Amino acid sequence: MTATILASIALMFGGMALLTIGTVVGRQLLGLGRWAPGLVLATGIITAAFYSIERMVHFALLGLLWGAAWLLLAYVAHREAIKPISGNPTCPAVAVDDDEETRTSNTSRAR
Questions:
Q1: Is residue 23 a contact partner of residue 34, using CB atoms and an 8 Å limit?
Q2: In 3D, which of 23, 17, 18 has the Cα closest to residue 35?
Q3: Which long-range contacts (CB under 8 A, 24 or more apart) does 79-83 make?
Q4: Contact, 10 vs 48, CB < 8 A?
Q5: Is the pLDDT at 102 greater than 70, yes or no?
Q6: How far apart, in whole angstroms, are the C-alpha atoms of residue 25 and residue 88?
Q7: Which of 57, 63, 72, 93 lies 20 to 30 Å from 49 when distance is taken between CA atoms?
Q8: Does residue 39 register a pLDDT over 80?
Q9: CA distances from 97 to 81, 100, 102 (A)
């Protein structure tokens, strides 16, 4: 059981390291958001180091420190996901037009 847990931790840290390298080198994220996966990785390593020292501190850090880093990563991913596709920050990401003239036969409402 312990070997399975350690293997899953190692795989998660390895995947997060690859994600960090990809976001930093890819330069698709702007500002400090590109370092969010690295922050999750760093806080996870810090949290894992406390497991053998003091388990209560480990679990507190797991929830407070590592959990907050995951929330930051989720916020960065959400912020990037809602950006407009056209690159124009003034237009919405999804335009809903309820005009009768723009509907095709496939999208018209039943009368």
A1: yes
A2: 23
A3: 79/33, 80/29, 80/33
A4: no
A5: no
A6: 24
A7: 72
A8: yes
A9: 21, 9, 8
